[in-house]
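Go through this:
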Amino acid sequence: MALNLIVLGPPGAGKGTQAERFARSRGIPKISTGDILREAVAAHSELGLRAKSIMDRGELVGDDVMIGIVRERLGRPDVRSGFVLDGFPRTVAQAEALDEIMSGRDQLIVVNIPVPEAELVKRLASRMVCESCGTNALPNSSACPKCGCRLVQRTDDNEAVVRERLAVYERQSRPLVEYYRNRPTFRSIDGAQPPDRVAGDLVAAIEAAGSAVVEPVRVDGSLGGRP
């Protein structure tokens, strides 16, 4: 049975780090929207060129392009044993499209990692990122833990911008969390804990969700066999 996981959470929740850690422990790919967007652009694929054109204009990549890129990525052989999705879906429209993509496959497990806003502002305002590969690092780190390059602070990690980003996330994520909340494979864990505790709770939540008796998901997102 494939382990197909979505990790949800606001900026600063640590979902990318936790997704990477879990994927590595299970030997399955961690798929982030940022990574596959950059890959598609570098490969000069049709969707990648569309995405580059949009980003070059300073606009956000729309659902149709993101869905197409994710559909292509989830069609590759390395996801047969499962995957961890980080950063997708971000909207209900993307979630509905993902259900269609997953038709006939093993169920999605969805774990939400909420963190209080005050803690998120504190984390993001002190966050350092690699200027080369974009990897997040702890505030006191001297170099990127992934590639060893120099760390810098993101220009959008000042408090005012952080609070606006969190407000946008809240508006977008509330309908998305509600879309998944009633599924037997949905879980929520406390993201305000130390990273190792969050990692332990994530594993426990995934194991509990994976043992739930579920029915196939229809394209409309409802459970098959129920009215």
